[in-house]
Amino acid sequence: MINVFQESPQGIQTAPHDPRILAAGHQVALREVNFSEVRDKDSLMLAFLRGLALTESFGRNWDALYDVLTDPEARPERFAILLTDYAAFRTRQRQLGPYLEGVLLDAQAEVARQGRSLWLLAEETGYDPRAW
């Protein structure tokens, strides 16, 4: 299997086994955003605030999220976001999911234009779609 960090980021990818260890070995800064408690846009923005260690000045809207993800002063050159329980979130939040995905993919493209890398890695922890 190809190591995800040896390739350019390509959309939202399945997280590899032991993503934290792999990221460290490839000099990729990795932060985790946990979607297990996300029920609405406010809790989604709070998950990013916590996961990315943002300050309370974070605007908690789509534009603010895009800005923090694409700011070369705020993010390392090689950066990964581990999206924990992402598939379950997408199942629960059928309206919210596409907006978030658009912001994440637009940010990934902008970061690439800057000559930097933003991996978006979906990690599932015991997700069973039949449980929803």
Automatic annotation (TrEMBL):
Segments passing through the bilayer: none
Record-linked Gene3D superfamilies: Barstar-like
InterPro entries per UniProt: Barstar (IPR000468), Barstar-like_sf (IPR035905)
Positions of the Barstar (barnase inhibitor) domain: 30-121
Entry's family note: Belongs to the barstar family.
Protein name (database record): Barstar family protein
Species this protein is from: Deinococcus terrestris
